[in-house]
Amino acid sequence: EAQVTQNPRYLITVTGKKLTVTCSQNMNHEYMSWYRQDPGLGLRQIYYSMNVEVTDKGDVPEGYKVSRKEKRNFPLILESPSPNQTSLYFCASSSTPNTEAFFGQGTRLTVV
Amino acid sequence: AQSVTQLGSHVSVSEGALVLLRCNYSSSVPPYLFWYVQYPNQGLQLLLKYTTGATLVKGINGFEAEFKKSETSFHLTKPSAHMSDAAEYFCAVSESDSWGKLQFGAGTQVVVTP
């Protein structure tokens, strides 16, 4: 089954404690991206990757890092989380940016 | 740079009534336009998309949308609402000459009443 898998689904952490949210896709897609969803703001793009070792900033990259060492995986790293990063995070993949994006189930992060 | 405006953050419709969700965009180049739906506690899934060609696009679950270049709009409609249509709907735009820039609207929450 074609899917994008994020882990964990729920995470509560404390300010400053580094964390990683994993994302994996099994569709051999070149394009992957991370979004955060906040009420009234829709989804905002954090980072995207066009292929292995090729990443670029989206609209809200501050406080986040990503890496793309393998085609299937695109982890999101918060080196020093802060409460304003409390949000619902989605990973997505597509064959190109202008075709259908497949989304993971989301990761609800709370930073206290 | 592109942007998306969805009119109405909440819409309430009666079961069997017309569903109309409005989306306007701005883009400096020919856009690719999308509607996604998000059911509770789930990720987004594609309803329909416009890339080129026919301006009336049909999607899943009886939804359709019409691309109107002169009005820079891409409104989503469904003739008869079903209870299962209760969800949040997002309009999104991508510019044809950009890599990686999928811009979403703020979303419209649809409530269907019996």
Biggest interface? A-B, 24 and 27 residues
Q: What is the 3D shape of chain B?
A: globular
Q: Could you report the average pLDDT of chain A, rounded to the nearest whole number?
A: 94
Ends distance of chain B: 41 Å
How many strand units of chain B? 11
Rg of chain B (C-alpha, Å): 14 Å
Oligomer: heterodimer
- Provide the β-strand percentage band of chain B: over 45%
Q: Give the fraction of residues assigned to helices of chain A.
A: under 10%
How large is the radius of gyration of chain A? 13 Å
Principal-axis shape of chain A equals globular
Q: State the helicity of chain B in percent bands.
A: under 10%
Q: What integer is the average pLDDT of chain B?
A: 91
**Unreliable stretches of chain B:** none
> What is the number of beta strands of chain A?
11
Strand content of chain A: over 45%
What would your notes on this structure say?
- The complex is a heterodimer of chains A (112) and B (114).
- In chain A, 0% of the residues lie in helices and 51% in strands.
- Chain A has strands at 4-7, 10-13, 19-25, 31-38, 42-51, 54-57, 65-66, 76-78, 87-94, 102-103, 107-111.
- In chain A, a hairpin with a 2-residue loop joins strand 5 and strand 6 (54-57).
- Chain A is globular.
- The model of chain A has no long low-confidence stretch (mean pLDDT 94).
- With 114 residues, chain B is mainly β.
- Helix content of chain B is 0%, strand content 57%.
- Chain B has strands at residues 3-7, 10-14, 19-26, 31-38, 44-50, 56-58, 64-68, 73-78, 87-95, 102-104, 108-113.
- In chain B, the strands form two sheets. In chain B, strands 2, 4, 5, 9, 10 and 11 form a six-stranded mixed sheet that branches. Chain B has a five-stranded antiparallel sheet with strand order 1-3-8-7-6, with no helix packed on it.
- Chain B is globular and about 45 Å long.
- The mean pLDDT of chain B is 91.
- Chain A binds chain B through residues 4, 31, 33, 35, 40-45, 48, 50, 56, 58, 90, 92, 97-98, 100-101, 103-106, and chain B through 4, 6, 9, 32, 34, 36, 41-46, 49, 51, 90, 94, 96, 98-107.
